[in-house]
Amino acid sequence: MVERLRVLIADDQALLRGSFRVLVDSTPGMEVVGEAGDGVTAVRLARELTPDVVLMDLRMPVLDGIAATREICSDKTLAGVRVLALTMFDMDEYVYPALQAGASGFMLKDASPADLVNGIRVIATGEGVLAPTVTRRLIGNFSGRGEATRPAPRLVGLTKREQEVLVLIANGLSNTEISERLGISMPTVKTHVGGLLSKLQARDRAQLVIIAYESGLAERGMPT
């Protein structure tokens, strides 16, 4: 029997928690194992229940979603737990800090039910997911801020092709889109992504996006 994906919902609005619960519990292969109305409870339940995915609202009382995400993602006993951060606004200033804290993805609360369910599935496999508008917002925030101009020692050892793949990941392209853009097979793309995760010691695709921007590679674009 295939195990069901276990989901913890953390949101300070009971109505939204209820809506997410109905969606998850009505999806084959998924179940809600707990609900939290604040960050402290979210961390406690994550440790007690070890869910596969935490749907994490970033604006919560007592302990905000960023701090809660950081506690969960830095806890070695919760290495298998993935956080999918949720917000109402694609311009939310919490986007970048949440990803830095270890969130594996970021989606808007008004995403379609199908997109949210797919996001949970993708996160659970160890991949990362970013809503396209969120990726564009990240690009816009870094452009002109001058933050991505520091030396990039973490990129030493990457091949030219791996750098190309990393730039495309940072711009929100899927493996299929990367395959088409670079004219390489899907297995080759997956090999490059796996190599990047290993060499850069990133836990998932979302962390690769952060590294690409912090190193300045995303700003410089495709290597020549």
Query: What's the level 1 CATH class of the largest domain?
Result: Alpha Beta
Number of strands: 6
- Tell me the span between the first and last alpha carbons: 50 Å
The SSE string, one letter per element, is EHEHEHEHEHEHHHHHH
Spatial strand sequence of the major β-sheet: 2-1-3-4-5-6
Number of helices: 11
What is the CATH homology-level superfamily of the largest domain? Response regulator
Strand content: 5-15%
Biggest sheet record: 6 strands, parallel
Helix and strand content put the structural class at alpha/beta
**What spatial form do the alpha-carbon principal axes imply?**
globular
Total number of distinct structural domains: 2
Helix content: 40-55%
Domain HTH luxR-type: 151-216
Organism: Streptomyces colonosanans
Keywords: DNA-binding, Phosphoprotein, Transcription, Transcription regulation
GO molecular function: DNA binding
Topology:
Blueprint: E1 5-10, H1 14-25, E2 30-36, H2 39-49, E3 53-57, H3 65-74, E4 82-87, H4 95-101, E5 105-108, H5 113-124, E6 129-130, H6 132-142, H7 160-170, H8 175-182, H9 186-199, H10 205-215, H11 217-220
Parallel strand pairs: 1-2, 1-3, 3-4, 4-5, 5-6
Helix pairs in contact: 2-3, 3-4, 7-9, 7-10, 8-9
Please characterize this protein's 3D structure.
The modification 4-aspartylphosphate is found at residue 57. Residues 151-216 form the HTH luxR-type domain. One of its GO terms (molecular function) is DNA binding. The protein is an alpha/beta fold and 224 residues long. Helices cover 50% and strands 13% of the residues. The protein has helices at 14-25, 39-49, 65-74, 95-101, 113-124, 132-142, 160-170, 175-182, 186-199, 205-215, 217-220; strands at 5-10, 30-36, 53-57, 82-87, 105-108, 129-130. The chain has a 6-stranded parallel beta sheet, with helices on both faces. The chain is globular. The model has no long low-confidence stretch (mean pLDDT 84).
